[in-house]
Specification:
328 residues, elongated, Four Helix Bundle (Hemerythrin (Met), subunit A)
């Protein structure tokens, strides 16, 4: 049975959040402390990677102290029944956190300040230090859980997303070439498809950074670094492909380019070969077609009515070269 069967039911991050919440509440209750502030801190401390949890925890702790301090100060001055106590506590907490570059902890600090005010009464020092202690418990517990329990592995997500990207970008290139050759040039659908590709590629970049951070914080076999480098190389190649593809998508409206019969056949051969990569797993070269397009573009004046045609052929040849290197 697959060791990761639980991921089909509930995500690892959700499991770790639940475990961190339980442990935090257990520790606080054992110490006779109100667990709500510690739990709040623990929940927001569970990040996609252990590095992110530790890095943001460094800023959330002082931000929480700031929120607790302002709630105590303004409750002491104005009492806990004044709306100004809440308004000023929130305002000054946000201002100071912003000035100290503690943005990631601002929300938790403000919520802590607001939740503290009704229960402070006259136990100012006790409430301040107890909130500080519970915040530390929440941060430490969540950080350890995220570091030790179920270290995230994004390889499967990356494989799926990268494969999905390649399938879509090859299909979009083929469809765009057909539109140019048939003279049925449209913008709407290709624009949407290209935006989907850009969003998907951004997601891949984020997952790659998560996995890179995770590997740097844990001891892993060299094979995992090799696998990550391979996925990174694929992603970078795809990003370069999409950059040139976007130059073929973002063409002037109602573009009309006249190609010779030989040029049309050469473009169609390359487009079909690229469209079949996802199915066959390899790139079939059409060197004669590429050479014909190179010869054709050399004979064009880039500054007359053939400027657009020259641009299109250049982009096709650049994409051909990218894939030629990738599947070398």
């Amino acid at each position: 049975m697959n060791d990761n069967w639980y991921k089909r039911i509930i995500g690892a991050r959700t499991l770790k959040t639940g475990l961190a919440t339980f442990l935090t509440a257990f520790i606080c209750l054992a110490l006779n402390l109100n667990p709500i502030f510690a739990i709040l801190t623990a929940i927001v401390t569970i990040e996609p990677t252990a590095k992110a949890s530790l890095k943001k925890g460094y800023k959330r702790l002082p931000a929480t102290v700031i929120g607790a301090l302002f709630s105590v100060v303004f409750t002491f001055i104005l009492g806990d029944h004044s709306p100004f106590t809440y308004a000023l506590s929130a305002t000054f907490t946000i201002i100071l956190c912003t000035k100290l570059n503690l943005h990631v902890g601002t929300t938790v600090a403000t919520l802590t300040a607001m939740a503290m005010i009704p229960g402070i009464h006259e136990a100012y020092f006790f409430n301040f230090f107890s909130r500080l202690l519970t915040a530390i418990i929440g941060l430490v517990t969540a950080g350890l859980v995220n570091f030790i329990i179920l270290p995230p592995k994004y390889y499967d997500q990356l494989e799926t997303s990268i494969s999905d990207t390649e399938s879509k970008m090859y299909a979009l290139f083929y469809e765009r070439m057909r539109q140019l050759l048939l003279g049925k040039f449209t913008n709407g659908v290709p624009y949407r498809q290209l935006n989907e590709l850009l969003d998907l590629n951004q997601k891949i970049e984020t997952l790659l950074s998560y996995q890179r951070d995770e590997l740097s914080y844990h001891k892993h076999r060299d094979s995992e670094w090799i696998r990550l480098r391979e996925l990174t190389t694929r992603s970078h190649t795809n990003r370069l492909f999409i950059t040139h593809l976007s130059n073929l998508v973002y063409l002037p409206k109602d573009t009309q380019i006249i190609f010779s019969c030989e040029e049309r056949m050469a473009i169609l051969n390359i487009a079909q070969s690229i469209n079949q990569i996802y199915t066959t797993g390899h790139f079939e070269r059409y060197q004669q077609s590429a050479s014909l397009l190179k010869t054709s573009v050399k004979g064009l004046d880039e500054f007359d009515e053939n400027q657009l045609k020259s641009h299109v052929i250049y982009e096709i040849l650049l994409i051909y070269r990218i894939l030629d290197h990738r599947f070398a």
